[in-house]
Design brief:
105 residues, alpha+beta, two-stranded antiparallel sheet, flat
Amino acid sequence: MPSMLVIATTAVPDHLRGALSRWTSEVVPGIFVGSVSARVRDQLWQAVTDTVGNGAAVLVHPAPTEQGYAIRTAGTRRRVPADFDGLTLIRMTAAPKAKEVQSPS
């Protein structure tokens, strides 16, 4: 039975965006919304994780949890889902430190 999913992407290859748009609608740049079976959803997510490269992606789909949805991530992100007593909360990681520029002596 089809269910709704949302995939948000950042800095992913164009061919991945094209593959996602075959099964979903890109409602705004990088945000894909669709209604697919669990099998298709898992195959789409496998394609995302295989080709995300230096980019990042988040998948939100219905699940039998207290919140009613599950979150999956791929790539490097500052926001990381964390399980807290059965609830998925978002944990922020530290921002990457900028390299210090040393002035010549």
